[in-house]
């Protein structure tokens, strides 16, 4: 597939919205790598549609929806989160992934009130907000140092912590929502201790 100027502009707008500076040359190279066809005869460890998950670091699990290849990552995968409708897609090298089983059944929270589930979601959200604040503080410092010509500072650790906290929040909200939906279907939802709906 040929990378067009429109594709580059749209990708640049997305990067700008995330406050990420990507030079046009790097954007073109990334898009070209993302749309490269898999060379014939080079087998892939995972097939299109297979469920995979990251085996370390931040949580991610979903279905293979595409492939990419670069000089740095000869075998890369586009993995769509499939536990929510129209889930986001992340890219990972083959070495970061392993096969995953079928989607997990919903967590059962039978007999538990919704305040406890809400507290778990709020705690996960707070951890994510705190990690994001730490990242933004560090990013502001790094950007001010870079404006002075000092490019030695990085935000890798803070970014990783923020992404891990975001993953944990998404997973907590998803698990609690799935449990609530399952309880609603079974008729065992309680909104306050002892008060069934």
Q: In angstroms, what is the radius of gyration? A: 21 Å
Helical content stands at 40-55%
Separation, N- and C-terminal Cα atoms:
54 Å
* Total number of domains: 3
Shape: globular
* Sheet having the most strands: 5 strands, antiparallel
Estimated share of beta-strand residues: 15-25%
Low-confidence segments, ≥5 residues, pLDDT <50? 191-197
Number of strands: 7
- The number of helical elements comes to 4
Pfam families: DHFR_2
InterPro entries: Dhfr_type_II, Elect_transpt_acc-like_dom_sf, MscS_beta-dom_sf
Fold and architecture overview:
By secondary structure, the protein is α+β, with helices and mostly antiparallel strands. It has 3 domains: 1-35, no CATH class; 42-104, Roll (SH3 type barrels); 114-196. The chain contains 4 helices and 7 strands. The protein has helices spanning 5-17, 24-34, 114-147, 156-186; strands at 51-54, 61-68, 76-81, 89-93, 97-99, 190-192, 195-196. The chain has a 5-stranded antiparallel β-sheet with strand order 4-3-2-1-5, with no helix packed on it. Strands 6-7 form a two-stranded antiparallel sheet. Strand 6 and strand 7 (195-196) form a beta hairpin. Helix 1 (5-17) packs across helix 2 and helix 3 (114-147) runs antiparallel to helix 4. The chain starts with a helix and ends with a strand.
